[in-house]
Each structure stands twice: as C-alpha cells, then as structure tokens.
Amino acid sequence: MTTSIPATLIPGDGIGPEIVDATLAALDALQAPFEWDRQVAGLGGVQLAGDPLPAATLDSIRRTRLALKGPLETPSGGGYRSSNVRLREEFQLYANLRPARTVIPGGRFDKIDLMVVRENLEGLYIGHEHFVRIDDDPHAVGMATGINTRQGCRHILKYAFDTAIATGRKKVTLVHKANIMKVLTGLFLETGLQMYEDPKYKGKFELDTIIVDACAMKLVLNPWQFDMLVTTNLFGDILSDLVAGLVGGLGMAPGANIGADAAIFEAVHGSAPDIAGKGIANPIALLLAAALMLDHCKLPELATRLRIAIDQTLNIDKVRTGDLGGTARTVEFTKALVSRIKAG
Ligand code: NAD
User: Atom 44 in ligand 1: which residue has the minimum CA distance?
Assistant: First the structure.
C-alpha cells in the first residue's frame, strides 16, 4: 500500500471547479494516494478571506510543498498583485515546465513533442514598472525594469540541462534576444554557453542558441527541429502559448512550477469566464498537469495510465469537448475517461 501524499488543492475561479472535479474523478479512479487539503485563492480568496492569497492557503502549501491548482483570477482594482506571481515568488518556483505533445493525431502539426522550460522569477516579468508625468499627463512615459541574475540564470539552465539528460532530450535550444538586450538576455546566453562546457553536460545533448523572433517563425514553419527550449520569463510566457497552439490550443497545455522544495501544478489557461458554469470546459490541460504531478511524486506508472486513458478517450472513443471539435460536456468526457482508467 502506497503511503498517502499530503497535497494542497485550490479549485480556483471560473471553470476551475469544473476541471478540478474532472481531475479528482480521474485521480480517484487511479487510486492516486493524494490526501487533499482544500484551500481558496484568487477571486474565491477575496470572497472568503478578503485576500486573493489567504494566509491559510500559504500555510497549507508551506506544509505540503505540493499543490494542484485551478486558474486564478486577479481581481481588477483594489491594487491586488497576481496570485500566481505571488505563489511563484513565495515558494521560489524558479522553473516553469510546459510540455506540448500531440494528443490528437492528424492536425496541422502532427507528432509534436516539445518541452518549454521557462525561467519563472526574473526578467521583464517581475512587474517593476512606473509612469513618469510630463506636464499634465501623468502617464506620459511608461517604464519597466527587467532583472536577470547570474544565479537565476544558473538555476534555470541547470534545471533544463539536467531535465534534458534525465528525459533523453537530444537538443536544447537556448532562446534569447542578446543582439538587442545585450545585458538582460546576454547574461542568460553567456551563462548557458559557459555551463554547457561542464563535462557533466558537454556532448550529452546538443546545445543550440537562437534569437526569440527567429525562434517564433521557425516554430511555425518547422517545429520538429526543436526538442527542448529554455528561455527567460517573458519569452517563455509567449513561446509556450505558441507551442500550446501547435497541439490544439490552451485546453491541452499543462504547466508545472518547480522550486527547490515545492511544486505547483496547473493548466496553462486561465479561468475562461466566457464559458464558466456552462459545463463545457475541456479538463485535459489540468489532467495532464496532474500527470506531471504524478511524475514529480515518483508515480510514473499512474501518470502513464492517465495519459493513455486520455489518448484512448479522445482517439478511440472519440469523446471530445467543443474546443476540440466534439460535442461532449465536461462530465461526459470525465465519465468516458474514468471508464477507460478503470478498464486499463
Ligand atoms: P483564458 O485562458 O481563461 O481563456 C482564453 C480562451 O480560451 C477563452 O475563449 C476560453 O473560453 C478558452 N479556454 C481556456 N481554457 C479552456 C478550456 N479548458 N476549455 C475550453 N476552452 C478554454 O484567458 P483569459 O480570458 O485571458 O483570462 C481569464 C482570466 O484568467 C483572467 O483573469 C486571467 O488573469 C486569468 N488567468 C489565470 C491563469 C492561471 O491561473 N494560471 C493563467 C492565465 C490567465
């Protein structure tokens, strides 16, 4: 009997509770040994505790060091910072892992198997911004500061290189803009090239470098030339959505936020307020995030069973939600998936 694994569960906002219910049904069918501590955040946190990231939620993650979360809305007005950014900072979740794998064959881009590794704590994304007033225009100038550190670059590059070796990736492409942002992203490029000279890495995989704009074009022209991309925060944010588009859109894109001693798993997409409560959300992104969580907890057999069951439900049973061209409601997809898990 596997010992139980304490984990924090944040259903989140919008479609969050619907896709979390689907994911819990699948994990139950797999008899995954998570012992959930249910907490709120985002709009739910504001409504229940007056804070998008209540102290009880933070305490829970401090205890479990492991969370599965639905999408969180940042309430507009009230000066709230994004709960997602606060969670990454609080638990120093420096690596954002976003795999994109073709699940439904025969689309415009077939047989995609790409990993995007995004730095999660630094760069232009840190949100250190301000306006400068000129005469009577308080917003005459907008300014943002980006910060990359040698240590932050080392952390993420080491994570990417180690993961490439551990998962048998043949090529790592370092994405930068060092031709223009010679300091901010030049530091990232320099650190990566230096680190690759370490005998621990040299020759274990091929290291390539590319400017971010060229990378965007090449991803659309020929995505198969890439294997793993590693990049700074903002470029990673943009490229991982592009890569999600190659495999059927945001409904299929899972994400893992990894730190030295905590990890939070989520779908890449947001709370989809336009379809919330309609029962038509695609739960696959969060299900695939749960598969990453099972891998992280050293339960790869359960992760594989979950991925196979998703594949069978989509491609043999042809049960698909509307965003994938099907007619199934979330609960119908979940029912078919649970049958496949139990039969597997
Ligand atoms: P979104 O990802 O919520 O929605 C974009 C489009 O994709 C919508 O048309 C939506 O219906 C569709 N979509 C998204 N997920 C889907 C799914 N699982 N099944 C079917 N269709 C799906 O992006 P948005 O509208 O820009 O953001 C809405 C809110 O979510 C905002 O408050 C934003 O800040 C928040 N957000 C949170 C996270 C997170 O918690 N990680 C990420 C992104 C956005």
Answer: 270
**Residue whose token pair is 């994405």:** 175
pLDDT in tens, the chain (344 residues): 568 999 999 999 999 999 999 999 999 999 999 999 999 999 999 999 999 999 999 999 999 999 999 999 987 777 788 888 899 999 999 999 999 999 998 888 999 999 999 999 999 988 789 999 999 999 999 999 999 999 999 999 999 999 999 999 999 999 999 999 999 999 999 999 999 999 999 999 999 999 999 999 999 999 999 999 999 999 999 999 999 999 988 889 999 999 999 999 999 999 999 999 999 999 999 999 999 999 999 999 999 999 999 999 999 999 999 999 999 999 999 999 999 999 97
Write down all domains in the chain, each with its CATH number in brackets. 1-91+261-344 (3.40.718.10), 102-249 (3.40.718.10)
177 is catalytic: yes
Q: Calculate the dihedral angle through the C-alpha atoms of 116, 120, 123, 124, rounding to the nearest 10 degrees.
A: 90
Q: How far is CA 72 from CA 12, 164, 218, in A?
A: 5, 30, 32
Q: Are 52 and 84 in contact (CB under 8 A)?
A: no
Ligand 1 site residues, Cβ closer than 6 angstroms = 15, 19, 71-74, 84, 250-251, 266, 269-275, 281-282, 285, 323
